[in-house]
């Protein structure tokens, strides 16, 4: 089971405080069972079983103050999860864990949205990705071309003849 940071200040937030106890447990269950970027593939029966009673999911989703969203594909997303777990996420990072994290966001179609929450302009992220792709292509082309670089053999034949005549005249 992955290790997670826990927001202990959640107990002081009105929206959380007003949830019935079973719904608080359900929210915590989602946080504990979502993937590394805050996306949970709902298994409502298992969640209710682990919480210990039936959950009014519609009530929970309505009363979480935007802290839970249902995505178009039916999965549940916790928008602030990324910001809390990775406070210094950067698209320029070369760290393998961060690259893996960015890849997971991309897989869920959330990369631009989450990076916007970090203050990165969307167009910059797209441009950076395009630049990285272009650099990879250039490196691949270089590695594919193992032949020696060819010399520039373009010349003016008339100029060459004139040089040869001058050299010949200088010798004789």
What does this structure look like?
This protein is mainly alpha-helical and 172 residues long. The protein is 54% helix and 3% strand. Strand 2 and strand 3 form a beta hairpin. Helix 2 packs across helix 3. The protein is rod-shaped, with a radius of gyration of 30 Å.
Task: Count up the helices.
Answer: 9
Strand content: under 5%
Main pleated sheet: 3 strands, antiparallel
| Uncertain parts | none
Strand order of the largest sheet: 1-3-2
According to DSSP, the number of beta strands is 3
Q: Any chance you could write out the topology, listing elements then pairs?
A:
Layout: H1 14-17, H2 21-33, E1 39-40, H3 44-51, H4 57-62, E2 69-70, E3 76-77, H5 81-85, H6 96-107, H7 111-117, H8 122-144, H9 157-171
Antiparallel strand pairs: 1-3, 2-3
Helix pairs in contact: 2-3
Short description:
The protein has 172 residues and is mainly alpha-helical. Helix content is 54%, strand content 3%.
């Amino acid at each position: 089971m992955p290790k997670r940071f826990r927001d202990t200040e959640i107990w002081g937030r009105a929206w959380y405080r007003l949830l019935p106890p079973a719904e608080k447990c359900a929210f915590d269950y989602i946080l504990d069972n979502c993937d590394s970027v805050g996306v949970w593939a709902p298994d409502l029966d298992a969640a209710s079983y682990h919480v210990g009673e039936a959950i009014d999911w519609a009530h929970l989703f309505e009363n979480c103050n935007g802290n839970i969203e249902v995505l178009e594909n039916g999965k549940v997303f916790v928008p602030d999860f990324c910001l809390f777990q990775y406070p210094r996420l950067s698209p320029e990072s070369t760290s393998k864990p961060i690259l893996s994290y960015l890849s997971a966001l991309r897989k869920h179609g959330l990369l631009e949205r989450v990076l916007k929450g970090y203050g990165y302009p969307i167009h910059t992220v797209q441009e950076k990705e395009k630049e990285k792709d272009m650099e990879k292509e250039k490196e691949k082309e270089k590695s594919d071309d193992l032949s020696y670089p060819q010399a520039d053999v373009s010349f003016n034949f008339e100029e060459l003849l004139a040089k040869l005549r001058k050299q010949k005249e200088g010798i004789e």
